[in-house]
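Self-study notes.
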Amino acid sequence: MTANANRMPVGPPVELVLFVASSAGGAAAIDHVRRAFERFPVDTFALEIVDVVDDPERVLRERILVTPTLVAQPSGRRVVGDLGDPHTLEFFLRALSL
């Protein structure tokens, strides 16, 4: 448990959707996002994971061209590609949680 895990959220969670392919890269993206969440108060974000193979209609509707893609709902802001850079991911999440 991290130091931030005990802090109370400041408002409703930011809803995020992570589009992944069912592969090792998809599993790594999920891990990177979950680790990035540890730097924020508990329940700052709500994460839905969508496997692009299982839900191709949603992929088309959301205009997902590359996996992994992390999309903030309802704004549509997104991070596309390798989510392994913790600085980029944290910058994106901080901007959403303001």
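Second protein, same conventions, sequence then structure:
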Amino acid sequence: MTDPKFLSLLLKSDKKQFFALLTTNSTQTAALKQAKLLAGMSYCVLGCAETKDKQGNLVQLIKMRNAWTTGFWEGDWNDSWKGWTKQSRDAIDHQSKEADGSFVMSLQDVR
């Protein structure tokens, strides 16, 4: 489960259209390598939302963008993941499968 204060801060920042960044650890760990994320990289937060997954469980999603358009998340909620629903795509406004550098992760995976 994620920290409710962190989620609240992200949701408030998103609503007020504040600028936010998330940064990965500066050391290339096995977890980062497996997830296809880059060490020491800052990702712009484009939005966040609470929605339900296919099983009806509440999930917190965060949409980010890598300005270099390399190193995309390949876990749950990646562009081709089979668990997407129309409701979840609409909630986080992630319709495109273009290589624009944006990707979605659950907040639990971010932490």
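Instructor comment on the second fold: The two ends are 10 Å apart (CA to CA).
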